[in-house]
Structures are given as C-alpha cells and as structure tokens.
User: What shape does this take?
Amino acid sequence: MTHPTISPLSTPSSSSTQKPASKTPVLFAICLAGIILPLSFVSGSIATPVISRELGGSAQALSWITNAFMLSFGCFLMAAGALADEIGRKKVFIIGVSLFTLFSGLIGFSSSLLWIDLMRAAQGMAAAAALAGGSASLAQEFEGRAQLRAFSLLGSSFGVGLAFGPFLAGLLIAHFGWRAVFLSSMVIALLSLSIGVTRVRESKNPQAAGIDWPGTLLFTAMLASLTWGLMEIPAYGAASVQVLGLMALTVVLLTLFVWAEKRVRHPMLDLSLFRYARFIGVQALPLATAFAFVVLLVLLPMQFIGVAGMSEERAGLMMMALSVPMLVVPLFAALLTRWISAGLVCTAGLVISAGGLMWLSQAIASQTMSATLLPMALIGIGIGLPWGLMDGLSISVVPKERAGMATGIFSTTRVAGEGIALAIVGAMLAGFVGQSVAKLLANSENLLASGGNLRASSGDLAVNLGSHGASVAVQRLATGDVKQALLALPTSNAQQLTAVYADAFHQLLLWLAAITLISAVIVYAALCLKKEPAPQSIKEC
Assistant: This one.
C-alpha cells in the first residue's frame, strides 16, 4: 500500500486561519483514516480463506477480494486528488470516509461473494478519495516543520495499520468471525468521520485545472483489462482466446490513453516526464517493493492458513515478522542519508530483500514454518530502507516546477503496480502449481491407465492438465486451498498437494528475488552512477 506524499509546490487555497491547538483533532481524524486503509488491504487477505469456507466461490472470485480493492484504489487516486482541488478537499475527504464506512458495513453483512467483490471495488474508490482529500487537507492545516511532523505522523499511521493489521484481523476472525474485520474498519471510519465533519476546514484550489476524464477512464479500463487478463490465465491458459483478447484490448486502450494524454491541455499523466532517464529509473522502486513485499502480504497468509493449517490468529502473528520492521527501518533509512546517498541506501535495501526472498524460498521448500520468521524479518528490513525515501527521490530527479506531476505519476505507479504485481504473481504461482500437478498426475498409475492427457506445458498450465478436476485443483491450490484441491483431485493426498504447493512457492520466491535484484541494478544505474548528491530534503530527514 502507498502512503501520502507532499508536493513541494504550494497551491493557492481559500481557508481561514485557525489556532494551532485546534488542529490536533484534524490530525487525529486524518490519521485514523490513514490506519484503516492499509488495515483494509491486509485484512482482506487474512479473511479470504474463511470467506471461502463460508461462502464458497471460484478461485478467481476469491482473488478479486484483494485485487478489486487495489485496482480501484490505484485507478482513482489521481482523479480524486484533482477532484479535491476543484470541489473542496474537506468535501472529498468526508465523502470518501463516509462511503468507506458504508461499503465496509455492507461487506460485513454480505452473504454473497459477488457482492463482496463489488463492494471491495467501491471501497477502493472511497479509500482513494479519503486519502487524496485527507492528505490535501493536512497540507493546508500545517506549514513548515509542523507540516513535516504532521505527514510523518500520517505515514506512521499507515505503518501501524500495515504492521498490526494482519494480527488484528486474525484476532478478530478467531473470536468474532471474518465479518468483524470489516465492521471494525467501519467503526474506526465512523470515528474519523465524526471528528472530520466538524474540525476539518474546507479549502480548494481556485486555479484547479479540472479532471482529465478521458485519460482517467482509459487508464482505468486499461488497468482493469490487464488485471483481468492476468487473473484469467490460471483458468484458461495464457494462449486462450479469453486471455489473448483481454491482452489485445489492453494494448488498444494503452495506445488510446497515450494518444489522448498527448492532446489534452491538462493531462492526468504528463508523459513528457518519461524523457528523464533518472525518473524512469526511480519507477523501479515501487515496482520492486510490490514484488518483494506487497505480494507477500497476500501469499503468505494463504501459505500459513490454507496450506500449513494455522489458525488465522497465529498466521496474523507470524505476518508481523514481515511488517513490523516497516515501523522503524524507514526512520533509520532517513538518518542514513546524512552520510550515504539515498540511491545507494535504496539499492542496498533491495539487495537485502532479494537475499531474504532466497532465504525464505529455502524455508518454504523445507515446509518448516518457524524457519520463515527470520527471512521474513530480513525482507521487511530490506524493503524498509527504500520505503520512506522513494517519494522524495521521485521529485528530486525532475525539474522543481514538474515536482507536483512527478509525485502524482509516482503514486499512480506505486498503487497500480501493486495491483498488477498481485495479478502477475498469482498467474506465475498457478503456472508453477500446474507444472507440479502435471508431474504428480504423470506418476499416478491409475490416471496413466485411464489414458488421459497428462502433459502440461508452461504456456497452457490449466487447459492441458487432462481433466476438469485437475484444472480446478490447480486453481484452488494456487490460492492455498488444499482442502478444495483435494476434493477436485481425489486420487492425491494432502501431503502430496502440500509438497506441490511448497515446490511452486519455492520457485516463485526465487523469481521474485531475481526481479528484486534486477530492480536494484536499475536503481543503482539510474541514481548512483552519476555522482550527484542526495536531495537536501532527504538528507535533513
């Protein structure tokens, strides 16, 4: 999940002065909203196995519990920021928190998986409005060092939600059921709303350029098509008509988006910034953190709950080894930039994370869950180094007058990249599971005698598995649902399928380590090869 950033460019706004003491409730209200956004993301992955047991549903439908939230959040973040400047920052914040409260309550009382998926998408849009409006309001309430402290507290609120969200979700599920996860978010949002309505001041930018609706709609449709296509690979295969059609549609929408952005007066994304090689290099940072850290917030709970058979409470406690370092390490990274360039600190962090991923792959292969704690902590420490520095770097590598747009592009890359990374990694894991299941079936004498087609190529992981049951088993096992996979593949046993998943997850983690190392090389080449000092704002953190 992303966290708020401050553009160094101030925008004119209409707001009255206010005593400093009265600003504390404003900060408290917005920080409460900051806690529930990452909490909603990580708790969804913890709750998914329990929702599956109660409501059923296909593997794809269950995956949308997390992906729908991330996709809509990433697509509407920049549009919400533009809307806040135009119609009022408080108004957008209040609308966002109100809708988030409503959708959280509807999810908590829902009895349909389809309804949950739809509400999660709507919840992501509301979260984008709450974040954009809240961050913009905070920037208007505080100035100078007070503003830096306020945004530091907001960033810490995100860290608290990220660090303790898995454990809190597991605790609530263990004692009150999965619905309590979303209802608790509703209660916190209501508290934030009750304070924000009376204490947050209205402000807007009288020079706001408005929303680039063509760009926003094309960008949203493009991301939705890409994500949907990637998520269909486990069910239909990469070479299927469905997947190829969605990928072709993605290319068409991307082409139209670029065409539209070059012609609109105030584009959603100023594509000319990509002329700066260093700016392109910085975009590798959020993509690396997505593949090395964010996807693990979804995959590891599936491993612990669905495969290892842990309780949701214990799984949430295990996840803290990965997330708690994010509370402390970013502060340490800021101190390091006094002596070491920010680019070098980020590069070192990615290398450390890659080492942690390789170590974690060995622990998963051994099927010893207690052995995962130290490598998880190492990954968290490594990702924590660039986590708090990325936003400053994104604006330090472009001219100052372009810093506002650079921040917007970076935030969009960060959030949208997380959703796409989840879809890509899900398809990769299903591919590895499909290959391992094919080998398992090929070694089964009973299925050999039946004459089924038992070969599975890496390109068609689901279609060529020889039977509908095997295809369903692959989809279920790729989401960590061993019990449902056993029902679809009764000729196997739990020990075999657990070993299949461990082997697939082991391979996936090695690929994630490789992606992280490649990102480290890109970041080093973009930021460290040219002997330039780190941005002054980062050094002073």
